[in-house]
């Protein structure tokens, strides 16, 4: 069977503050996750990955740093661009842009941040990556919440409207194994 691994980056300084987007570094907890992840793959607790794909953002590169495999930074794996709301907390967004906040709440899938993106936009830019990934085996994808919701939703045949609400927790390896046409999912919560 074909196996692909997915994980969010370790907790970032922005995650700690509840701020969205940006290019923050890992928090101390996030760094511990990076070590645990490297240990997991380097010690053959799982298979040896042939490649690690990250986004271009610091938090995914730092998370992948210790894994012994060639790394590739893929622009299409960057997190949802929140446009004018980058760097805000959800409370600040609600205060400063109440109409935007309400619109997003009404249709999170299609809502596009001004000067930014929607979940549908992410699906569009992910298409080539998803096609390439289907040809791969033992690749580890270190990504972001919204992007991983789209990727996992695609492989698991989720309904489009469910994508923005899929649960992709931090500090967890999502192992997808394909038996021909159907993907089996396993969540490995790392003790850190
Ligand atoms: O909060 C982390 C984060 O990755 C943000 O950068 C991003 O805007 C957000 O999650 C996406 O999640 P949601 O669509 O639920 O706001």
Structural summary, described in words:
The structure is a single chain. Helix 4 packs across helix 5 (98-106) and helix 6 crosses helix 7. The chain starts with a strand and ends with a strand. It is α/β, with parallel strands linked by helices. Helices cover 36% and strands 18% of the residues. It has a six-stranded mixed β-sheet with strand order 3-2-4-1-5-6. It is globular, with a radius of gyration of 16 Å. Bound molecules: 6-O-phosphono-beta-D-fructofuranose. Keywords: ATP-binding, Coiled coil, Nucleotide-binding. In the C-terminal section; belongs to the phosphoglycerate mutase family.
Order of helix and strand elements from N to C terminus: EHHEHEHHHEHEE
Largest beta sheet, briefly?
6 strands, mixed
End-to-end span in angstroms? Answer: 29 Å
Number of helices: 7
Count the E strands.
6
**Proportion of residues in helical segments:** 25-40%
Spatial arrangement of strands, main beta sheet: 3-2-4-1-5-6
> Which consecutive residue ranges, at least 5 long each, have pLDDT under 50?
none
Any idea what the shape is? globular
| Small molecules held by this entry | 6-O-phosphono-beta-D-fructofuranose
Helix-and-strand structural type: alpha/beta
What percentage of amino acids are in beta strands?
15-25%
Gyration radius from CA atoms, angstroms: 16 Å
Average pLDDT taken over every residue:
96
